Each structure stands twice: as C-alpha cells, then as structure tokens.
Amino acid sequence: MKRIAIFVALLSTLLMLSTSCNDEWTKEQFTQYISFKAPLNNNGVTNLYVPYSRHNDDGTLTFGESGKSNYLLPVIVSGSVQNANDITVHVAHDADTLQTLNYARFQNRNDLFYTDMSTYATYPETLKLRSGEDIGLLDIRFNFKDIDLVNKWVLPIKVAPDPSGSYAVNPYKNYAKALLRVFPYNNYSGDYSATTLTIANAGDPANAIGMEYARAYVVDENTVFFYAGNVDETYTERAKYKIYARFNGGTQGTVTFWSDNPQLKFTTDNKASFRIDEMMDEVKPYLKHRYIIVNNVNYNYVDYTSVPNYEMEYTVKGTLTLERKINTQIKNPDYAIEWAE
C-alpha cells in the first residue's frame, strides 16, 4: 500500500508539472514587436522588382493607366501567440537612415548615392491590424511615368512609435526600417547576357573584347535603355551614355536603337531584331524559361569624358540574351517571375 501511495503521489506531481508546462505556452513568451518583412542584402537595401504597370489577372491595368503600379509590403506582429489586439501601426518616411547608409557605403561618391524616391511613391501613414491578425500588407503605390533610372531609387520608411504606446517597435533596425531599392520592370528589362557582344576601339577592331552582361532599365512599356559599351551604374558620367532600345512587335520584331545625347555621336545600321523563345524546365515541370534574344546589335559611339578634350570611338557588335523564369502555376504574370538575387 505504501508503494501505491508513493506512485499516486508521483503521478499527481507529474500531471501538475505537465499542466503547468502546457499552460506556459498559452501565454506570450516574447515581446510582440511590430516589424517589416524587408531583409537587407549585402548592399544594405532590399531589392524589389515591381512591374512598370500593374495588371489584373485578366491583363487589364489595375490602376487604369500605364506606369502606375504597387507593392504590398508585409507588416508583422512577432511573438509566440496570435495577436489578440486591434493595432494601428504608424508608418513614416526615414530620410535620415538613407543618408547614413549613403555615407557609410559610398563616402564622398555622391554620384553613387541612393536617391530618395518619395516623390514617386505614396503609402498610408497608418495600417490597421485586427485582433487575430499577425500580418498586414502596406499598400505602396508607385507612379513610374517619366522616372529616370539613371538614379538608384530607394524608398526609406520606418515603423513609427504609437503615441499611446499600444505596440512596441522592433528594436532591431533591420526589422523596424525598410530601405526598398525599387526596380520597375517591363517585358524587356533586366540583366542580359552579353558574352557574345563585343566592344572594340574603332581603330583596332581585331582586338575586340567580350562583355559579361548588360543591364536594361525601363523607360516605358516597350522601351528600355542600356549604357553604351562597358559603362555601368558605377560610372560617374553614366547619364551621358544612355542608349535607348524600343521593341517593335510581339514575339518577334525589330529593335530601334537611338541616343538623345548628340555628344555621344551615336550611329547604328538599324538592323537589330529580336525574338522570344520559350521552353519548359526539364526538372521542374511548372517552370517555363523565356528567352529574349536581340540579334544584330551594331552601333558606334564616342567616349568623350574619360580623357579631357579627347574622344575615343568604339564599336559594339553582337547578340544579347535575357532569361526569365516563369512559374506557370501562378495565373497573374506580374507575380509569376522568379527573380534571382
């Protein structure tokens, strides 16, 4: 009987401990902080790929006109249990953090600074999270019409404290702040493989060299611009070396190249064309590979800024190829592209 009594006592103790442990998990184990879901990359920003024009599932323009788009930024309530309160999250512009990042990254290279894109973006100053909701979506609207992507546009925002103290802002800056490097895209923009594109001094064509890639930046729905030759966004005078390319056609057609800078002395033979090829992935049956191939690229320009009072003439020839990976399980093409970081 004594052993039975001891066993019953031990069993009762274990049940009490078990109940106590289970009760602990019904209570919040951490502070419920408010955060953005905007992880930073090695450049200190979050890359966002946003369509130049947002479309509905049926292909119509979401906001009624070309150049208008949006992005839904997740706002998160952290913690171990579900949010049980109605919360009004305050969102504010954060120019100071962008200024700090620019100096930390680029020192006195003002030409490389990220540019605040607040003039091209709007968002609500508050976001309501209802009881039972752990995630809300901040609707950021963009008007990309006439934006010049020579500038490296970043939208800096932060979770602002609530004057009434109804929530806690995440104390870690990587979560309470968002530095959104926005890349608007159309069907023809992105990083083209340029391994079959060569650049040569006009007086020495035999010593042409290849390039790795050429980035195309959005101008409008069917137009992009490249930087001439091997100029890229790290080049101080890059704005003077823009070459425009307009794609004429559907799945194939011509490409019209031109420059609006007469000092570039840009010329071309107007024989460039493009085609779009598609094939399904051999391993992932839902994944489609879309290739835009630009043939017969052939243009000349002068570098007139590298050496004072001296022009160097270059010839660029070859082919450019852009690959997009499309998730065919997603109906709306605006959300179906799988972007590589």
How would you sum up this structure, described in words?
The strands form 3 sheets. Strands 12, 13, 14, 15, 16, 17, 18, 19, 20, 21 and 22 form an 11-stranded antiparallel sheet that branches. The chain has helices at residues 2-24, 95-106, 173-176, 333-336, and strands spanning 33-36, 46-51, 68-77, 87-93, 114-116, 121-122, 126-129, 135-143, 152-160, 168-169, 177-185, 190-193, 197-201, 209-210, 213-220, 223-227, 242-249, 252-258, 267-268, 273-280, 287-303, 312-327. It folds into 2 domains: 31-185, Immunoglobulin-like (Sandwich), CATH 2.60.40.1740; 190-338, Uncharacterised protein PF14274, DUF4361 (Lipocalin). It is built from 4 helices and 22 strands. With 341 residues, it is mostly beta strands. The longest helix is centred in the first third of the chain and has 23 residues, at 2-24. It is globular. The mean pLDDT is 90. The chain is 13% helix and 43% strand. Residues 1-23 form the signal peptide. InterPro entries: BT_3044-like_C, DUF4973.
